[in-house]
Write a structure and sequence with these properties.
Order of helices and strands: EEHEEEE
Shape: globular
Distance between the termini: 33 Å
Number of strands: 6
Structural class: mainly beta
CATH topology: Thrombin, subunit H
Strand order of the largest sheet: 1-2-3-6-5-4
CATH architecture: Beta Barrel
Number of domains: 1
Length: 116
């Protein structure tokens, strides 16, 4: 059976503006269970660099029934399976399939780039 990992989704909420009219944000975290992390091919990396100007690090498969907002969000997970959590930023649109027609537990995909 295929199992995913826990991914932390970091949500930014605007709380106001400072004296220079720059938005002030706070962050909150939510854990999303059973997310698959896939390694991109060389072609995928090159295509995304040409299309978006972003270097594709991983593709995440989101479980069916998930209602979180993923576009332009920060996610944290350990790509090595150890204890080295890294930050990534979601870019591009969320790709979704028809839930009933997909046999496995995942029906959405997002692309992430490394984010420091």
């Amino acid at each position: 059976m295929i199992n995913g990992i826990k991914v932390t989704l970091v949500n930014k909420t605007q709380n106001g503006k400072d004296a220079f009219n720059v938005p002030i944000y706070s962050e909150s975290s939510e854990t999303v269970e059973n997310v698959l992390v896939g390694e991109p091919t060389g072609e995928d990396i090159t295509a995304d660099l040409d299309l978006y100007g972003k270097r594709l690090a991983y593709t995440l498969a989101i479980p069916k029934g998930d209602t979180h907002t993923w576009e332009d969000q920060v996610v944290e997970f350990d790509p090595t399976g150890g204890s080295s959590v890294k930050r990534f930023r979601v870019y591009g649109p969320v790709t979704a399939g028809i839930e009933k027609l997909i046999p496995l537990n995942w029906n959405k995909k997002v692309k992430v780039e490394r984010y420091e």
